[in-house]
Design goal:
Radius of gyration: 25 Å
Distance between the termini: 78 Å
Number of helices: 23
Oligomer: single chain
Strand content: under 5%
Number of strands: 4
Length: 527
Amino acid sequence: MDIIKAQKKIIFFEIVIFCILAFMVGSAQTLSPFFGDINVIDEGQFAAWANQMLHGKLMFRDIYITYGPLFVYPLYLLFKLFSPSVFLVRIYIILGSIFGIIVTNILMLEIGLKRVGRYLMNIMLILLPIMILRQALGFLILYFLILSIRSNSKLIAFATGIFNGLAFLVSPEIGIFTILLTYFYYIVKIFYSKSKTVHILQITKLSLGLVLVALVFIFWAGVEGWLSGYLSVTKQVLTDFSGINTPNGQNLPDIFNQIPKSIKLVAWIKFLLSKNMFIYYTLMINVYLLLIYTLKLILKKITATDIKLSLILFYSLFLFYSFVGRPDFPHLFFGLAPLLLILSYYFVKSFNEFTTGKKIYLFSTLLIMFFIARLLYINNPQIKNIAKLPHALTVNKANPGYIGPILISQKQEKYFKDLKAYFTVNTTPKDDLFILSDEPVLYFILNRDDATIYDLPYIADLKSMREKMLSELKTAKPKYILYNKHAWAVDEINNVVRLPEISNYIFGNYTLITTIDGEGVYKFNNE
């Protein structure tokens, strides 16, 4: 008993150390709260949404939000309690990652992952952008599902239902994945079990947990007046903006056209180690594991651990589906955490078998090591930034307002200061603004509201959405519109091309009067 208590203390201490490291170096996007340029889209959208809520705008009715309300509302509350800043946004995002690290460690203990595997997984959770609050809730639900393998507790089923509901309200996409996985698992339990009544009661409790969350949410959103807006926006996000229906400018890379035409060894090594091939390695590993677990099930050789790992694999496959709709590396990273957890398990198992003399496992060990090493190398530019941490903690910052104590580059610092100085002189806080390029952080830095509901214009990918945006612009007639032709373009399509009705209206009714550090400032012709 004393040994077990000592082991628990050691594991608790290990988790605390990993969480502290994750906070210092920044586990969410390998960006620390203390250094790194502001991500104008990912961090900027949360900052802009929460800030406009402080100004009285309502989620989903006045602001088009692509996540669930429980992903945004806590930040709004933090803004009310503390001084709004990007520093606070970054801390909030990283705390979601730390929650994911804690849940993942508990899940690793539940599947029996040895210390080497746990350390390996924690290193990847810290150094790779694979875990934020969205994925963390999925891992928490996986933990409850795995608990139900050895327990028929109706309380666990009820808690699983509650957390599924919360997952949907943080990220509708993740929520749908976990709800489908949960019901599939419980229905299979009913089908294969002799105690069908027990499992029917479990699925009833599961449903009650979901319904409870739904009722509380409906009351909350109804009282605040944005329920209908939420239902409309969420339907659009799930049917028009997510998955393979997204009209983006990228597809899965065509590796067949990239196969070397020569037999030169160097050319083939470069091809096999390319980032595009890495995408297909990820797909092949997912499919291979699915075939293995399916074969084990058919042959009735599946173990309790296999069932636990297969649940994690199904979650991995669901997340990989999201990547197919948006095949860029940030979305590939988004879905990698469950797959890397499985690979960590098999790395330990293969390595143990190899060291005990079973040389056949050498190949598996090397393949997993290659996969992880290549993944870390892809993220190497961000990982190298960790060396800036000591300097960031000691240097004095001269950031403009709303940034906080983050060490950003001199170029970005000047960019924000110059824009802020111009708009402080030429506008008032009551003047709305519109930014044609996808830079929502500027609404926050300049403390100005969007003249439309679309802080990220590229989201308006349907003609009806573009018409709504155009109508709002014509009604609001913002004095200034910003457009940075050098800003990062989603799917490599800039918004002038993506939103022809909007760009035609802007360039027909606004005149470029100045350029501030690459940001074009357009003024309404009648002003």
